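User: For a reading group we're discussing how well predicted structures match intuition. Take Kelch repeat protein. Before you show the prediction, I'll give you the sequence so everyone sees exactly what went in.
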Amino acid sequence: MFHLETREITKGPEPPEWRLYACVAHFNDKIYYFGGEDPNTWELTNHVDFLVLDDWHSQKILRLSDDEQEWIEMGKIEEKQTDVAIATLDGKIYITGGSDSSDVCNSCLCFDPQAPPDDRISRISGLNCARYGHSLVAANGKLYAIGGYEQWICIKYCMLVEEYDPELDVWKVVDQIDDL
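Assistant: Thanks. Here is the predicted 3D structure of Kelch repeat protein, as structure tokens, for the group to look at:
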């Protein structure tokens, strides 16, 4: 881990499993780790410690403890997705798009770490353009989904820029990428 104050790098605790294409969010001085693929089996996961053992799946979201010595379970989500995008906005972590190995997803979730455990995860409106491998940016009280792929085999780019208004729970297309 890199410490801004001392500008030093130290080794933190290993997550329960390493994942390809996982996302990390830093929020309220905590580190959250979401999604990805098992590098050994290429099975999709829905959380950092999603385990694949005879089709048994754990569905946990973990965050690094305050003392940075262990990972703490924070909740569970349903989807098995990889290549999602995440961003923090107004005290919440938003999870958008991704792929479930056969389809590209437009689904979006909101994770509220401050809510009671059973109410931490909620579904929000889906993206207009299903996409994975995209960027999600928070700015001026809105979220922006930019780029990514519309098809699983990386042959078609999503050229739309979408804006999410959390007050209205609506995604709208605000721009288009002309050329890559």
